[in-house]
Specification:
413 residues; ten-stranded mixed sheet; four-stranded parallel sheet
Length: 413
């Protein structure tokens, strides 16, 4: 076991309260190969370095410390590639930040065996337990995701939950050509780059713990620091442009979902999650300015399709866009049969507006909502006298695109 097969990279900054759990998770690993622990500290001032030195003295052959005298993150340095990669001796890298920790002693061995058996896999993730310190609650990081290869769609926008950073395990050889795509987070850049090198794989086993609101946790930084959140949105726009070029457009059709997800989170956390249509439009104009108008088309699309989230959307839309057309003889159909459709029907009834029915993907799987007739899309003929109102959150953008492809031009958004 003299040859190092796996290099663990751990980055720390002011995580004295958590780093012991992280180190113990590394040291408890049971493997039939040798591994090393490489730890970078970015000038912690809370006692983290003292804990690291304590462990390094106990395990000098296994733990190597890289201690900075000036903070490198604030300079925009890629710590993993620019600082830690030259120290790596393993053919594989396992990554974990200093506030997360591993809870399964066979984690490294399982991921190592998987990549040894499947040379087409460039990067492997596994599930994690999320510990919300504020609420003292445990949840799963990824929900209803079977073990197996990760699709292109879930590479760009992990729809079942974000893949835990502390679970990543990948081939060192690909790091030599790792481009600077200016991703908003290192993990996103790594995941998307590795998808161009090979296949990604997910193991649905919770082998680590992610501390959601710990000091240094990304989610907490985004919520509590508006400047960090602004920079994230700016970087995301640049990253999508760079990655689209690098991947020759392979993932472009998934970018809008990814962009939309971050915009919703950004607005809810920094403007509030209760706003009118007028306020929503003003927020979008603010974001256009913050992003130097580099994504105005995407922001306009978001503004039109996600205004449905506004508190007065239904009443304003009915008064401004629907009532005049219905009074002139147009027929109105609602696309959807869930909660949002029910809200729309209630406001329409209050305003005295009748509808011709609801459009659903499969009427045999839906019960009638408030006794309105159900239709599948192919049962409604597109013509100038037909209006369709998509009343749903999920995939609203895709539904609007589908309606246009089917020849419907009077779509209420």
């Amino acid at each position: 076991m003299s040859e190092i097969e796996v290099s663990i990279i751990c980055v720390t900054f002011n995580q004295a309260d958590y780093i012991r759990d992280t180190l113990e998770g590394f040291l408890m690993q049971k493997t039939d190969f040798a591994y090393e622990i490489l730890i970078h500290d970015d000038v912690s001032t809370d006692g983290t370095v003292e804990v690291l030195r304590e462990y390094q003295q106990k395990y000098p052959d296994k733990i190597k410390l890289v201690l900075e005298v000036e903070n490198q993150y604030s300079k925009g340095v890629d710590i993993t590639k620019d600082i830690m990669l030259p120290y790596v001796r393993g053919r594989y890298i396992a990554y974990c930040e200093g506030d997360d920790y591993w809870i399964y002693s066979g984690k490294l061995q399982a991921q190592y065996d998987l990549l040894e058996a499947h040379p087409e896999i460039s990067l492997c993730y596994h599930n994690a337990v999320v510990y919300d310190e504020d609420k003292d609650e445990l949840t799963l990081n990824v929900i209803k995701h079977k073990s197996g290869y990760i699709t292109d769609a879930d590479t760009v926008f992990p729809s079942k939950g974000w893949y835990p950073t502390a679970s990543s395990f990948y081939r060192t050889e690909y790091m030599e050509d790792y481009p600077n795509l200016h991703a908003p987070t290192g993990d996103e850049g790594m995941r998307c780059y590795m998808a161009c090198c090979g296949k990604l794989y997910f193991i649905n086993q919770a082998w680590s713990v992610y501390r959601k609101n710990s000091n240094g946790a990304w989610n907490a930084k985004f919520v509590n620091d508006r400047k960090i959140a602004d920079r994230y949105i700016i970087d995301l726009i640049q990253f999508m442009k760079n990655y689209n070029e690098y991947s020759a457009g392979r993932f472009e059709k998934y970018f809008y979902k990814r962009f939309r997800h971050s915009l919703i989170f950004y607005i809810d956390k920094h403007y509030g999650n209760w706003y009118t249509v007028e306020q929503f439009r003003s927020y979008i104009e603010d974001i256009k300015g913050i992003t130097e108008h580099k994504a105005d088309a995407l922001l306009d699309l978001f503004c039109s399709t996600d205004a449905i989230r506004c508190s007065d959307y239904y009443r304003e839309t009915i008064k401004q866009k629907i009532q005049p057309r219905v009074l002139a003889g147009a027929r109105l159909y609602i696309y959807g049969a869930g909660l949002e459709a029910t809200k729309a029907i209630a406001v329409l009834a209050a305003e005295g507006v009748d509808i011709s029915g609801l459009i659903v993907s499969d009427k045999n799987k839906n019960e009638k909502v408030i006794f309105e007739p159900l239709y599948e899309l192919n049962e409604v003929e597109p013509n100038s006298n037909v209006m369709i109102w998509p009343c749903l959150y999920a995939d609203r953008h895709s539904v609007i695109g589908l309606l246009r492809d089917k020849g419907f031009h009077s779509i209420i958004i």
